[in-house]
Amino acid sequence: MKGNHHISQLLIFDMDAGWSSHGSGIGANQTYVAEPIMEYLASAYFRNQGYIVDKFNERLSSSRKNLDLFAISYPDLQSILSNHDIGNSGLYLCELESPLWGKKKNRVKKSEDREITAVIEAESSRGSESSGYKQVKTDLKNGEFNHGYVSAPFIKEKDREDIGIVTFDNKGSLFTEECLENYADGKKSSELLQRVERIIKLALLKNIPISKVLDLLPPINSFWEIYNSVEEISLSSIVQYVRKHHRTEKEQKRKT
User: Fold this and answer.
1) Are 163 and 178 in contact (CB under 8 A)?
2) N or C end: fewer C-beta atoms under 10 angstroms in the chain?
3) What is the 3-state secondary structure (H, E, C) of 101-170?
4) 2-59 per-position pLDDT tens digit
5) For the segment 167-211, what is each residue's pLDDT rounded down to a tens digit?
6) What does the angle CA 196 – CA 234 – CA 50 come to, to the nearest 5 degrees?
7) In terms of residue numbers, what domain contains 241?
8) Are both 164 and 217 inside the same structural domain?
9) Whole-structure pTM over 0.85, yes or no?
């Protein structure tokens, strides 16, 4: 497995509350590492690799409820965001709701030059690797995802290529292994990416008042219709509209 980083190079939050140990070192004497820690570690890794990462309300997929995490590479969409200094590659979905666009460059490498959808199952140190593998394999059956990963601590060896791995050892060294098998059905994967694009548009629109959102969209009769009506507006148009609103607000504040 690849081991080029220490987990502290990826994380932006203090994780001390997520594990407990006795002795020295992260994994001394059977450290307990909670599942949310492994979920966050995987999210930080894939964000650093240039993916859009989020739980996407846990219902991005039609396979089952409560999937742990999704990582999406969507080059056409991400290039539009990057051209407006939004993310510049990898990002968490919540970053699109931030008013700090363009104030700093995101120093992560570009994501893949092809569309990739991945599902990640996180396991605690008390969980079972085989249980994680089994769950991911189940999630991959419907053809919506290219790849599947298990994120769990202290995996010493990987004896299979059909599932990827994100793990670390008792010294905090990160190890990863790519999923080499492609499970995607073209149509189902494309439909999932369409849902991702819609969700990203809606996240961007959270930056402006609902009255301005309604001015941009075609006439609607209910708030629920916003979910589908955003498909009629291009991502680039939405970004430009939100930026224009922010510029107008700043100008008005300077005048007062």
Assistant:
1) no
2) C
3) CCCCCCCCCCCCCCCEEEEEEECCCCCCHHHHHHHHHHHHCCCCCCEEEEECCCCCCCCCCCCEEEEECC
4) 655 666 665 544 444 444 444 334 444 456 888 999 999 999 999 999 999 998 865 6
5) 998 888 899 999 999 999 989 999 999 999 999 999 999 999 999
6) 45
7) 187-255
8) no
9) no
Q: How many CB atoms lie within 10 A of CB 86?
A: 22
Q: What is the pLDDT of residue 114?
A: 86
Angle in degrees, 0-180, between the axes of helices 235-255 and 186-205, rounded to the nearest 10: 10
φ/ψ (deg, to 5) at 52: -85, 125
Q: Which of 135 and 249 is assigned the larger pLDDT?
A: 135
Among 133, 165, 185, residue at a domain's last position: 185
* Same domain as 28, residue 147: yes
Residues across the chain: 256
Q: What is the pLDDT of residue 50?
A: 93
Are residues 93 and 171 both part of a single domain?
yes
Those residues whose C-beta lies under 8 Å from the C-beta of residue 40, and which sit 6 or more positions away, are: 11, 13, 15, 18
Number of domains, the chain = 2
Sign of CA dihedral 72, 75, 79, 82: positive
Residues 11 and 90 grouped into a single domain: yes
- Whole-angstrom CA distances from 193 to 187, 209, 231 are 10, 27, 12
